[in-house]
Amino acid sequence: MCIVCCVLTGDETRQRVKFTDERVCKSHLLNCCPHDILSGTRMDLGECSKIHDLALRADYEIASKERDLFFELDAVDHLESFIADCDRRTELAKKRLAETQEEISAEVAAKAEKVHELNEEIGKLLAKAEQLGAEGNVDEAQTVLQEVERVRTRKKDAEEEYRNSMPASSFQQQKLRVCEVCSAYLGLHDNDRRLADHFGGKLHLGFIQIREKLEQLKKTVQDKQEKRNQERLKRREEREREERMKKQTKSRSQERKRSRSRDRDRDRRRRRSRSASREKRRSRSRSKERDRRRRHRSRSRSRHSREHSHKSSRDRDRERDSKRSSSERRSDGLNGRTESRRHDDREAGEI
């Protein structure tokens, strides 16, 4: 499915996928896909299995200015896998050379390695001079060429030491070494043109670009991760600070509630105390009033009793007097009647 998508035109690709699609090559978006960099070299990797489209790269570059998409992680994984394969091929090539070439002493090997290092330095300087000349920086290119001449002198001395340390027959044999950057074979007796073609060639420079891009991406990923960790730490601190503030606010609120509750309780106790005091005063007042009424009733009853007793005594006196008068009247009537009868009797006797 991915291979079919790769052969689509740019317009069709844009219509079908976006740069965030998993089928899009993230290394291509970051301009570091080995399939693009090593295209046309003897290590051409062919077409990438994922979608390559310059329009998608442009979309990504616009979007990446607004937010972090962390496509660098995918690109780092891709390049690390590629460089690991290259390093394995380098080690295998070194092993094969060690098996095929005549074994030499450690001292001679060190001298041969010094010649190789000087060859590599000359090749890099020549490639740099050619690049500066192509860019129009003639003076700087001449300065680099002068440095090349000085390194050539040092190389001649190193080759003399190497030649004197071993038999002439062995010295004439081509001693090879493996380039640590691109795994290509380099000869001890390679001329300057051969060295310049190698170190200034697309293959070697492409591997340098890939390795440098990998280190750059690693640093970018590390910086972004540190920044993200700092932001995460800052957010966590802010959350903790907000939680502390909430707890403090809640604590203060609870304290205010407790204070208000205590105030209410205190006010309630005061009201109850005042109410109790008023009730006591009322009770005492009622008690006093009852006592006054009781005393008043007692005095009234006593006065009434005295009055009643006095009245009763007068009544009894009057009754006694009345009885006595009645008795006297009865007695007087009886006496009168007796006298009258006597008088009548006397009159009757006289008659």
TrEMBL record:
Q: Where is the composition biased (Basic and acidic residues)?
A: 220-266, 310-351
Q: Name one GO biological process term.
A: mRNA splice site recognition
Q: Where is the composition biased (Basic residues)?
A: 267-309
Q: What Pfam families does this protein map onto?
A: LUC7
Cite a GO CC annotation: U1 snRNP
Keywords on record? Coiled coil
Domain of life per record: Eukaryota
InterPro entries associated with the record:
Luc7-rel
Coiled coil ranges (UniProt) are 83-161
Q: Quote one Gene Ontology molecular function term.
A: mRNA binding
| Renumbered residue ranges of the record's region Disordered | 220-351
* Protein family according to the UniProt entry: Belongs to the Luc7 family.
Please report the name of this protein according to its UniProt entry.
LUC7-like (S. cerevisiae)
The species this protein was found in: Cyprinus carpio carpio
